[in-house]
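Ticket #4471: complex job returned nothing on first submit. Input attached below:
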Amino acid sequence: MSTSRDIVLASVRRSLGVTSGEAPRRQAVDDRLKGHPAGVVPARGQLAPAERLALFKDKVVAAAATLDHLPSTAEVPGAIAAYLRARNLPATLLRGADPRLAALPWQNEPQLDVWIGPSDGRQLVGLSHALGGVAESGTLVLLSGPDNPTTLNFLPDHHLVVVDARDVAGDYETLWTRIRALFPEGPLPREVNWITGPSRSADIEQTLLLGAHGPRSLHVLLVGEAG
Amino acid sequence: MTSFTGPASSAHARPPRVGLFCTCLVDTLRPSVGFAAAKLLEEAGCEVDVPRQTCCGQPAFNSGDRATARALAEQTIAAFESFDYVVAPSGSCAGMMKTHYAELFAGEPDGMIRAEHFCAKVYELVSFLVDVMGMTSVTARYEGVATYHDSCSGLRELKVKDQPRTLLASVEGLTLNEMADADTCCGFGGTFCVKYPDISNAIVGKKADNVVASGADTLLAGDLGCLMNMAGKLQREGHQIAVRHVAEVLAGMGDGPAIGVAKKD
Amino acid sequence: MSIAITSPQLKENAAEALKDAQLQEALAKVGPGFIGKRAAAAAAMPEFDALRDSARDIKNHTLAHLDLYLERFEEKVREAGGHVHYAVDAADARAIITDICKRLSAKTVTKGKSMISEEIGLNDHLEAQGIIPVETDLGEYLIQIRHETPSHIIAPAIHLNKRQVEADFRRVHTDLPADRDLTEPTSLLAEARGELRQKFLVADVGITGANFLIAETGTSVLVTNEGNGDLTQTLPKAHIVLASLEKLVPTLEDATQLLRVLARSATGQDMSVYTTFSTGPRRPQDGDGPGEYHVVLLDNGRSAMLEGELREMLRCIRCGACMNHCPVYHAIGGHAYGWVYPGPMGSVLTPSLIGVEKGANLPNASTFCGRCEEVCPVRIPLPKLMRHWREKEFERHLTPAPQRYGLKVWSFFATRGWLYRPATRLAMAALSLLGRSKGRFSSLPLAGGWTKYRDFPAPEGDTFQAQWRARKASSRSNAA
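Support reply: We reran it on our side without changes. The output follows.
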């Protein structure tokens, strides 16, 4: 008895007029998978480091996120505390085990109550560290895992993301190259998240409103200068 | 003064011979558009003739009747292929001939080559005058405020957009007021308007609203099908807006009765 | 709810839609809402047309090698600890999904917006099996509580206004205070967020669609603005991706090319808010994420479309630009098309999936204005493919009799010029005479479709060809 798989693949091959054996077809597929050509990469992001960073900041804000540009990681806890104060939020936040977040000088803000782990939906503020950013659209790129649990990106009302200015690329392709280098042997993390602004919906009368299901606010803590 | 920058102004060449494809709607319902087209082509320095013709075949093609469409294509090609150019006062018919004839001869290499040779010569009237003959202005007078509707096939298949506006800008006494959504379909769609009259009516209703809102007293376009649709709707709604083919105004023949208006006795 | 096919009644559906004042009010916002945003996004990206070419080429390449990319995708999903299930048809896909849900003793499943789920009537089926499906995309949630179907592929509730939403929320959310203020969209959104947040946290299984499937890495890609797709796939025990075969693309870079045109074409955003690349289930060390990852690959007629010109339709990335720019969609909305997929893309896809016998109205109800093709990010020649269906209809003698007869009579004359020219002269002379006083007709025999709504101009008199020849003859005789 043939399985659904056999039926579907046979039907695909019948319509294409092929068997599975043609060497040139296999070669074309292997070449594309190995070569993974970039295609058309917009000139928009292909800028000198300082301009690239400026574009990233503009695009982050255009996507309705907010941004603090800080000279160094030393200022991150203070900026977080100021963010929470300004919005009358409790001085509590949840983060993952990312060593870069662990290494921040939390002792400078002793009133901050910093928890570690994934979110169960009860936390107002989540903190993540991004792998990088993409200037072309003001997009943050995050990887799932114990360092930066995915739930932090979506359940808290406020998502705060630290990104190193040296990790802001012009285009997405640069980040894919980096991700491939991080996981040379195999599978990607469960999730690679591109995040461009806070959650929104325009499903009621096409009126655009922020905070649909994910965070109502996305705040980017951009650290340092472009490398 | 009608003026040119293009090839026709170079004096030595033999005048290009243009076969005027008058379109079945102009032929039967509004011959004055055909005469306006011929006048403009002659002013541009062309030698014009009108070979015996019926229809480009688009109604059959768009109704799924490929065999009839192919037969009409063959008939039209035979009638026009000896001309230097084939020009129609319609983006729709010109678009049919220029962009679809070749595919009707799929699987017939000789027919395909012949069709492609023909297609290369086909033009919509106003874009032909501007793009090929280099016409940049006309000698014409029309007292009124006009708005111009971009008919779909001309706009999207043949890129007719600026050419009519360029020539209209030179018509003395004429002001062009652009309407909202000038490039949105008027709902004619050939047989669509009689197959789905309710939908077609909703679309032409919006178009009529935009025409009226433009404040124009004259509506112009380059396709008689769209013009009849819009004129019919405006008249049914009681609006006194004169609807004319753009060629009539450009040829200085905008003083006859507008579409759907009786001749004065 | 699963969808009864009413495409054969398109004319009746359209007439109803045109009379529906609330619907017309909502539809009036579609064009202004989407057209300008897309145009601005396209204008701000100088490479936009080059990206469209690239997107088209990627899809063409993938479709030509689809069997091989499917095999590669499958292998990579397995390597990452996930499962791939092929489904020949809707029943097959529904059975696969209910089996997974039952094995996990699922009581509720949350769902991301998926047109494939609508296509296979998944919600009704789950309910019949005692499993509660909860739509989490705001628009999908609105239509679920109204027992309606989507009227647009990216904005499923675009036919509703806020007063209708308020009434539905009061009807359904009975545990909330009756005197709450729901007059503004912000309060409606806040209420939906609160209601659905509870559902997200207790769901056993999350079902999403996919915008792309990446063969290189065995990854599914999901794009949303709300974040509902992420909560749907991250929180439950299992994530089921329901996707049709043609969602495959070769590589991460290829998906990226397509993503660059998707949001711009759909909503005019550079990129949607959440673009999520999911590969396999959670890893042993992960603190969150689904324990199981399943991909259901649905054929349901697509493999047959790979043969012949309809293959081009399989490039579609479901951005909705074609319907956003369609004058017919603007007039009648999505429900009138009578099945899952409305607008120009639906007019091509629907006959492929439900048969031209039932779907023929759709490709006919187009003015062929060509605006859909002009904005399609993967350059699908939609009018050409609609014409393909008209040809199939004509070949199978399915064309309605009056139309067929009219076409026959017209063809008879048009292909016989020697008969056509005198006949048209005679007819025009008669009509011209009849219409002379008014210059037009407000009714004409056999032209009721026209004159129901418009006047018809009286012919000027003799035909152009006859007049031209007469003038030539007289100028020749004058010269002689």
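Chain A has a mean pLDDT of 96. Closing as resolved unless it happens again.
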